[in-house]
Amino acid sequence: MNTRRISLLTLLSLFACVSCQSVSVGPNQVGVIFKKFGGGVDTTEYLLAGNHLIGNSDRLILYDYVDLEESFLYEVAGPDSQSYTVELDVLYQLLPEKASLIEKYLGEGYQYFLIGEPFEALCEEFTLDLPMAEITPAVWEPLKDDLLKAIAFRDKWQALEIDEVKIRLLSSDEE
User: Fold this and answer.
1) pLDDT tens digits for range 7-52
2) Which of 31, 65, 88, 89 makes an SS bond possible with 94, Cβ 3.0 to 4.6 Å?
3) Largest CA distance in the chain
């Protein structure tokens, strides 16, 4: 009987070792685990740089989280029959402990949902009544504050830390 317990324990230990895979998370990356047979994205755990063991049926999803930059271009029509091309550059960090929530609820393209869509809406609203001659760099300052508020409202997980926002007018074309 004692031999059976040892054999069973050995068999279970061997099975546990064989049923794992080694994964690597690079520097400035965070790993999120998708558990195929465990309810999807594991929101209780995240992996930082190094080698880790995860289940064979699990999948590792990697996110960069340090010194991230996103650029968005929008073309909006002003009241003076001109269209404006506006550029937004945002420097930000993704908090590693929140990456699993971003994966679970937003996934790939989270940047557009959290930053791009609010900017597009604000930009259209903001430039609706402004003729080209009145658009100067100083005019964008209130829009930056509104954008930060809109991002904070959408980012209910508080997963992003915004470091810098740059908004500028690239061009305008007579229609």
Assistant:
1) 776 766 666 556 789 999 999 999 999 999 888 999 999 999 999 9
2) 65
3) 91
Angle at 168 between CA 163 and CA 170, to 5 degrees: 140
Cα–Cα distance measured from residue 118 to residue 112, given in angstroms and rounded to the nearest whole number: 9
**Residue 47 DSSP one-character state:** B
Task: Output the DSSP codes for 52-117.
Answer: EEEETTEEEEEEE-SSEEEEEEEEEE-TTSEEEEEEEEEEEEE-GGGHHHHHHHT-TTHHIIIIIH
CA-nearest of 19, 21, 43, 20 to 32 is 43
- Residues 6 or more apart whose CB falls under 8 angstroms from that of 25 comprise 31, 47, 48, 49, 50, 51, 52, 60, 62
